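Bench notes, afternoon.
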Amino acid sequence: MAKKVLVVDDEPEMLSLVKYTLERSDFEVYTCDNGRHAWDEIIKIKPDLLVLDVMLPGIDGYSLQLKISQDPQTKEMPIIVLTALEPSKTLFQKFPQVVGFMTKPFKTEDLLQAAQSAISRAKT
């Protein structure tokens, strides 16, 4: 069964690139373009992995990460942070579920490797 990945990013090109990259490796990919709807999508989809942008309309990635880490349903879900803001890495380092941090632009091979690694390390 394909592993489910939710990608949250407000840039349509980025959503398409990440979706295409992960679907080529048989991930089942869902997308969301703002932080305000992301929580509902997380609860509905129950993804095996979340790829999360930091700067989002509605609710930013860091606030969303706080909520995810405090909820028993989601606190074990692995997260790859994908951002143009390299300095924000230090904000996310305290969360054990953040298993990857990638700065835009990135190599699609690196994203794919991070996703496969995160899924394989995740508790099932």
